[in-house]
What we know:
single chain; alpha+beta; 4-stranded antiparallel beta sheet
Amino acid sequence: MASSSNSYVCDTLPAPRLATGDSPMLNQEEDSDSEVNVEDHDHGAQETESGSPPPSQQPPARKLCVRHQRMADEGTNLKLQHREAVNAIWSNFSSSSHPRRALILQGLLTMCCFSQLSLLTEQLAHLIRIDPFSVLPREVSLKVLGYLDATSLCRAAQVSRRWRALADDDILWRGICEQHIGQKCRKCGWALPVLEKKRTFVKAVSPSPLPSNGKRKRADDSSPERDSNKRNRTSDDGNTSDSSDCSPQAQSACSILVDPGATTQVTRPWKDVYSERMTIEQNWRRGRCLVRTLKGHTDGVMCLQFTETLTHPTFPVLITGSYDRTARVWNLETGAELHCLKGHTRGVRALQFDNVKLITGSMDSTLKVWDWRRGKLIRTLTGHTAGVVCLNFDANVLASGSVDSTIKVWNLRTGGAFTLRGHSDWVNTVQLWDGQNATTLATSSAPRAQEMFDAPGSEAPQIDVGKMLFSGSDDGSIRLWDLTSRTCVRMFTGHVAQVQSLKLLLEDECKPDGEEGKKKPVLIQGQWDIETGKTVRTYFGHIEGVWGVASDKMRLVSGSHDRTIKVWSREDGSCTATLIGHTAAVSCLALGEDKIVSGGDDNEIKVWSFSG
């Protein structure tokens, strides 16, 4: 080691120990002739008299590693060629074998001082990085990215264009959608709405909610000797007709509902589908929504149902019933009224519709079957001795509950019916259920098929074994009926006041090891376990009576006489949002996956949209 008063040269190893006949030394004091000799030696290319190297001394073809191939592609070597003084050393290193390269590097590191080692550290931190997706096959890259969650995929898409092309792949986002949409993700705990048809550009969203029936009693509902706690209201009867259209655009509306039109459906990327549903779920949890008001009824809205899954028309359809003795058909997308159905002589208290028909129940003791697309009355069913306040039907069977405390089960093909008796007060809500696994609840054997219906001419069996019916009444009880045996097989007690509405759901029952088990039926009126009859959960929050409830896999909503709508988490029973907007009691509501539709005594229909 040498030192000087004027300058300091770091020479950790003596020059003679580094310089040999085969390996020249990198020294700042070497003359140009030595550099030339080193270059000639490194290449091993002493030319013959003819000017060409001997064939035996031609260096073999070399395969570049990933890093050096990248440097060659970027032209890094060409940028450094102007440094001719050290070009010979680079050439010697490039032509060396891997063990010799390691030896050269060890010698260079020994000669470096701290400042130079610091420079190496900074350079190596950048150079040692490698983009795995630039060398891995696309299939392997997608497999690696498949282990990331949605947030990590979005961050990966911001790294580079190559990463974005991989992170936005439809296969990855379809897998994430399958984990979250329609079910609770076991990793993050989030569940997203289905919105079945919304992967296409044609507007269609959530499955049709079950009908929501109005539950209140008014002066024209009951006789004077009814209890004083029944809500009182007067309503004058008016002239009626079979059916008519209130809207001046009735003919055009009818053609829109009846004549199918050609539609083009183009699917969207799964990432957009996930993003849209995540926005909706965040809005649900934060209570953010847009509110639209539909006006047309002249009295309180008592029942409603909407669907957004019809193949035609392509727009969502809403039908409402009111104490103004009419049922109205709406375009839920635009808010336009399409039909006004007249025929009942008193208020419409219940309704339900499917692709073909609409059935309404009225305080005039009748049920009417309509062609809601054309606004025409098809048939009138009579049998109850007092007003009809609830109904529910499936493919062949219609059940209706009445002020006369009875339930009638109708054969939709023949019009025949039989009566279930057991409640001691108004039957406010009924719900059919295919309880195939609950046939053990029945207490008696089923009668023969021809005894199913009271009316003659109904010999063909219409009720399958296991068909059940739930009913809720003003007597405070909920009953479960076996329709094949016409008997009450279970009673749910616990309410201290009238039961106004109920909702039946099938809940995933998980096994201890985390695997999915059978579908477990759960009754929503409070929350009941059907198999045991015990109360699972009670929801507290409204300060007055609850007139309507609706629920899906993720949440429950309730409408109350206190003029509010509350959104509840089914997971922990907490109230996640309170919606205020009605100026009178909320009498009915229906739940979709991105909206709530409610009707009230203020004659208004409100659409609460969480789609942003």
